[in-house]
Fold each of these.
Amino acid sequence: MGQKRGGGDSSAARRECDIARWHGEADVIVVGFGAAGACAAIEAAEAGADVLVLERASGGGGTSAMSTGQIYLGGGTRIQKVCGFEDSADAMYDYLLASSGPGPDAEKLRLFCDNSVRHFDWLEAKGVPFKESFYGEGSYTPTDDCLSYSGSELAHPYPDVAPPAPRGHTVQQLGIEAGVQLMQSLIAAVETTPARIAPDHHCEALVRDEADRVVGVFTRHFGEERCYRARGGVILCAGGFIRSREMVERHAPWLARVRWAMGTDGDDGRGIRMGTAAGGEAIRMHTGCIVLPFTVPKGLLRGLMVNRSGQRFINEDAYQTVVGEAALLHQQGEVYLVVDDAIFETPMPPVEIRAVGESIEELERELEMPEGNLQHTVASYNAGAEHGVDPSFHKAKEHLQPLGTPPYAALDYRVEHSLWSVFTLGGLHTDTDGRVLSPENAPIPGLFAAGRTTSGLAAQGYSSGLSIADATFFGRRAGRTAAALAR
Amino acid sequence: MGQKRGGGDSSAARRECDIARWHGEADVIVVGFGAAGACAAIEAAEAGADVLVLERASGGGGTSAMSTGQIYLGGGTRIQKVCGFEDSADAMYDYLLASSGPGPDAEKLRLFCDNSVRHFDWLEAKGVPFKESFYGEGSYTPTDDCLSYSGSELAHPYPDVAPPAPRGHTVQQLGIEAGVQLMQSLIAAVETTPARIAPDHHCEALVRDEADRVVGVFTRHFGEERCYRARGGVILCAGGFIRSREMVERHAPWLARVRWAMGTDGDDGRGIRMGTAAGGEAIRMHTGCIVLPFTVPKGLLRGLMVNRSGQRFINEDAYQTVVGEAALLHQQGEVYLVVDDAIFETPMPPVEIRAVGESIEELERELEMPEGNLQHTVASYNAGAEHGVDPSFHKAKEHLQPLGTPPYAALDYRVEHSLWSVFTLGGLHTDTDGRVLSPENAPIPGLFAAGRTTSGLAAQGYSSGLSIADATFFGRRAGRTAAALAR
């Protein structure tokens, strides 16, 4: 019965007394060399700790390198000021608190917002490049521009909650390469410290002493067992679990329907399982960032997002992750964007036109929707839009344009027919200093975590850039805490 | 840092070497004396094990005694046959598999359905009384009747999935007292075995040996520490966590909005925390059974459930927990039931009339809904209902009645204004034999669980009676497994 626990590839914690020999040791061991791991390593090393970074791939980067390189920062960063945007820590906090519910981690949000400007400065000082520019066409910057709106700040109800400001800070590099640039810069910064990097080390389990303190890591290096002792602590920065089919199906089965799982092979949940096996608690395991990318080009925001009954269900200018969450979780992922000829633009592939009609009535028939529903939806929307209002869902005036130029089309954004993307947001519960907590909020001695191995700033109502913000900000704090413990 | 772990009321597992003395021992220790614990104790004792039941209250009963005493059973039970209903294990399985998604535990469902008739017979043999009668007015039986429809079997799309049959089997006793009757019968059955009952024992933590095997329980008896050794295993049957505000807010914050938390003080999540602290995994912690009790009297099913925008969002004849789940999670809990004078009946208190109008237009205005939406909803519904169809949501023909007799009213079923009820469905992951599993599906040696301490047959799309079915069926299996281990 206990067979699986001791051997094989189990992430169950090992006992120190069972470790035949240590292959190396350090004050602080960092597991995973993405953005969280890099920032943890820098801070721990700069605090004087002897740091060892274990990475399963042959080099650093992780999922952060695959990302769009966007970081959610605000409160009046240098770039925000240069571009003429006012912001404050309070406005940022009020927005994030209101948009990240239910049950956001208010303490983490407050600390993050209060220190966001300083964190931006730190990233710049470490060599991460940001251009002094604003990109107004959407959250994702195909150019090398920096600042953009990457959340629902301008959408109902948030302008009434807090003064809006763009807070997506994308690293200076063309398009998707910005994530690579971010990691190149952070890896270079790590390399200026004495921290040691050990690639090709697949971490399998933590090692605990008799008092249940985490004192090391059990790894495999090209198949061979290697154990490393940590005098101060171990920091798990090993990514999320979107690439573990079993974990996704157990914890967040609806996410399995999304075609593009954003992650590397490393996002197999191993870090989370190592942490829970050592007594940590995993929380919000059902949550994910669900991207329904219908806002490229931006003019498509003027279309109407409808469900299979022909009803609207959200203001279309809510951020694409918020629309994605509502569409997947509340509308079974069966949604269409209805446009007329005046609004139509070629959407970002691969999106197909599901139906076309010379009238809304014809379109409704083509979509096999209940008779009259879509007609009512469009007529009601048009009646408001002509007066610049959207009484049902409060879409902002600038995106309101009555549909009236035939032909009409329904773009197929059903989850199985379109390229939505997704990653997991659940993970280990940590305090603001990166300590992994038990189900009763007791820190697990010697264990820390950051990045998508943890449940962090975002749960639901995701704004883009929060994951890398989380990873870098709390990765740094975990590094400092673990280093202090080693002394 | 480790301060909270060792002392106080932590549920972190204790080490056997730290136990000064054992105050007693048994082959099998059962924690909690509700339906799951009683059934586990009976089976373990009948298998020849020396059984000790530890209960924090002064007597058995738990939340099962507070329940409606309804048990979801089928496949052709004696009562189903006597009442003239055909059923099969396959039909039951097909319905439960389709309605409990996404991500139901197919293995548990299959086993449960295949053995449901035998389980019913066992309950009867143990003295649990069931009347040979069918109650057709709803799921809950205010009378002492037995059989009723307690799920969505008759509602779209399930009649197309599996032949419907009523499977709610309520213990013979008037109304809410049926739960008390269930527990009186089960406790009496336990008392015919040699199993020992120890009330007033508040279990705080499990005790593990050096190999991490669960070997006992740390309890408090009127404040005094008492430790009990388990030679075979410990079975956690300690309820869910709806009475732990902190756990609800962390894991399922939306459930905190529901006014009636169905549970005893024992539903504080302690059993789940004891289990995770010993290496078990908690799953589906965000799920709950959310009851929106608008179907008493049953004629109100003919009303229209609408959201704050005046849209329908579900077939109103879906089971009240399914409507509750959609209303709370997808419609922010802001829903009304729209009726006309012909349909109106006094609803089960405390439900207030939010608005009245001589026309739907007036009602819409009173409710401050976007102009035209409710009018369209009712006109569209009426057009279909006149032909016995509901093209939008497929409510069954028998509940379709056009609204046309003024005045019209909106009954206030908003979650904060009406008496919804809720309990948690997340908990420890167990196999079909009641073994608690680690995040990697390895059984935790010596540890078992059943009832709402586990995530069982139901996740979402709850049908009433599944929790007691789960508790009794898998409680029995856990009892047998633990007893076998003790030999």
Amino acid sequence: MILEIAEIDVKTGSETAFEAAVTEATSLFAAAKGCQGMELHRGIEAPSQYVLMVKWNTLEDHTVTFRGSPEFSRWRELAGPHFAKPPQVRHVQLAVRTNGNSG
Amino acid sequence: MILEIAEIDVKTGSETAFEAAVTEATSLFAAAKGCQGMELHRGIEAPSQYVLMVKWNTLEDHTVTFRGSPEFSRWRELAGPHFAKPPQVRHVQLAVRTNGNSG
């Protein structure tokens, strides 16, 4: 499993519309090959800054299959108009983890 | 629940030692008040760049209680020597999520 982390800065004032667009787009991710789930997180210190995290089975499920699909075009159609600048995307993989005591 | 995201750039060549230090530090997070779990992710495009994600019940559990505790000093003692520069820390909260089909 790999995790896509996309930093998305949204135009000030577009936060509610952006979240509605992402909610509409959830079905695109839910149906995508190799997608294990998606979460959109909103910044507390900077509420126009979002972090989109998507779990994929493999890097190629994201960078090749999803990006080459009509679903990706639709995702960009829905979310893109709210971007303040192009998102910064990277991929990470789990190195260490632990459970807490309050979860 | 809030999510702490810390961007940690590690000195080149220190990656293995850093991961061992974080592994040793897992007990500090597991025991911390309000901590729901911790994950360390390693960059695929940039393998010296790590993302530490810690789930906390409240912002204050991290910024006040944990940072003021002896466990935080011990965490920095273990991990700090491997930092290439001071980590960048922010907090986010969940806005939208969906499950995938492969998880």
